[in-house]
Design goal:
single chain
């Protein structure tokens, strides 16, 4: 078995390698070549990753200035350089400057690449995170809604995981902002789509129903939450088994949140056909 690695040595070697690559690019291609500017950005990132934020910022500011001079203010390479600098500003606590730059990047990306371009959508998502951290929740949610809509318009089967992640984040934001009705409407729509695509017994559908029950509780719709949880437990017992951890977790939620008991949560014979009491009483 290998002994413990010397991470300090590894970090030093990584920085040195990036610096050597940059020196080679500068010597062979020139200071303003696109590959040289990219290599300089790599050095800045390595510095940032190793906690050398001030040094990273100094390099990134120069890279941005060079990109603006060589490529223009709204070239994709310049947008990347501006976005990287914004991240470093954020790390140093210069949040207002960082957000201002992120807003510039988003506006330029929409103009140059298009509203639904992958890079634009990622930029929009990152700005939403920044807005949320600054307690600008309404603006963050508005951007997240745009992200979900753009993802849905551009989605292919390979993109489904990303689309689902964006929806889940929006649902969490709705909940955190007290916009429970919007969370519920989105969750119900997601369940309808999943059932049409995968069938009612798909595990994603069952998980989505559990999340919807939570939102019903948060909205004060306790009776609907209990009924949905009861139906969910019966389906989980049938699909994955009454003793599966997922089923038992749903039972625990039923007991702790919905006023039921363990005895009434599952059918007496462990099958869905036995049914569950309508009122959850023992």
């Amino acid at each position: 078995m290998d002994g413990p690695q010397d991470t300090t040595k590894h970090t030093h070697e990584t920085v040195t390698i990036d610096e050597e690559i940059l020196q080679h690019k500068e010597k062979t291609l020139g200071a303003d070549h696109p590959e040289t500017l990219a290599a300089r950005g790599d050095v800045a990132y390595t510095y940032w990753a190793n906690g050398r934020i001030a040094e990273a910022i100094e390099i990134e500011e120069q890279v941005l200035a060079d990109c603006e001079r060589v490529f223009g203010a709204e070239d994709p390479a310049t947008l990347v350089a501006r976005s990287n600098l914004a991240s470093s500003y954020w790390s140093e606590g210069r949040r207002d400057e960082a957000v201002s730059m992120e807003e510039e990047v988003l506006g330029a990306s929409e103009r140059v690449l298009g509203f639904d371009h992958e890079t634009t959508v990622t930029t929009r998502s990152n700005l939403a995170v920044s807005y949320w951290a600054l307690d600008r929740r309404e603006e963050a949610i508005a951007l997240q809604e745009q992200v979900v809509a753009a993802n849905e318009r551009a989605a292919t089967r390979e993109d489904e995981e990303g689309v689902a992640a964006a929806r889940d984040q929006l649902i969490e934001s709705y909940r955190a902002a007290g916009m429970t009705d919007k969370a519920i409407a989105l969750e119900e729509a997601v369940i309808v789509g999943l059932v049409e695509e995968n069938g009612a017994d798909d595990i994603e559908v069952l998980n989505a129903r559990a999340t919807l029950a939570t939102s019903y509780r948060m909205a004060g719709r306790a009776a609907e939450a209990r009924e949905l949880q009861r139906e969910l437990i019966a389906d989980l017992a049938r699909v994955i088994g009454p003793n599966h951890p997922g089923t038992l977790a749903a039972v625990r939620t039923f007991v702790n949140s919905d006023g039921g008991t363990a005895e009434t949560a599952l059918p007496a014979d462990g099958t869905a056909e036995a049914g569950l009491p309508a009122d959850g009483a023992s």
